[in-house]
Amino acid sequence: MSVLLRQPISFQHSLMASVSLLWTPKACLHSDRTRERGYHVMFSAAASCIGYIILAIWSQGASYFALFLVIGGSFSLFSLVMGWATNVLSPMSKRGVGTAFIVSMANCVSIAAPQIYFDASDRFRKAHGIAAGYVTIMDLAVMRLKLLNRRKEKIHGNTSKHEKDNVVEEFDAFHELPDSDPNTT
């Protein structure tokens, strides 16, 4: 490959990486500021899904735009989901196990990706459709969690941090296994 062809390709990769570099911190900081993770996860998943659909359907010019959506949406998803999980999981030992579980599930994508992205003859249309399907399933699961949390807040009311700690100690002691982590107060 000549030097003239390598330069535009490296510029395109740098441009797409910079979109992810700008999108991810902006989404994470905004979700932290508003203390609302679910809608940010749904927006990033929807952007990624739209990008995968465009990649599966349209031409090369539209596919280039779709890569910005896929990369920005997909890379920000991991950070947003990790932020959501670490805020929701209360004792430190459960937070550690939950975080490790999420990271291990995210690493399973490396197992699945070579199995679906193997046939370049159709420009990976089937693989992009499968990826769009999985992102849609994740988006629907997040919507379901938001609805369940909203229903739970209507029943129990919106509580402060101190009240949540008391509720965990008193109410959920029956429903959860006891945690004997010495680092929790």
UniProtKB/TrEMBL annotation:
It is found in: Membrane. GO terms for molecular function: transmembrane transporter activity. Its main location: membrane. Keywords: Membrane, Transmembrane, Transmembrane helix, Transport. The keyword Transmembrane applies. The keyword Transmembrane applies. It is a multi-pass membrane protein. InterPro entries: MFS_trans_sf. GO terms for cellular component: membrane. It comes from the Eukaryota. The chain crosses the membrane at residues 39-58, 64-85, 97-117, 129-147. This is Uncharacterized protein. It comes from Sphaerobolus stellatus (strain SS14). The lineage of its organism: Eukaryota, Fungi, Dikarya, Basidiomycota, Agaricomycotina.
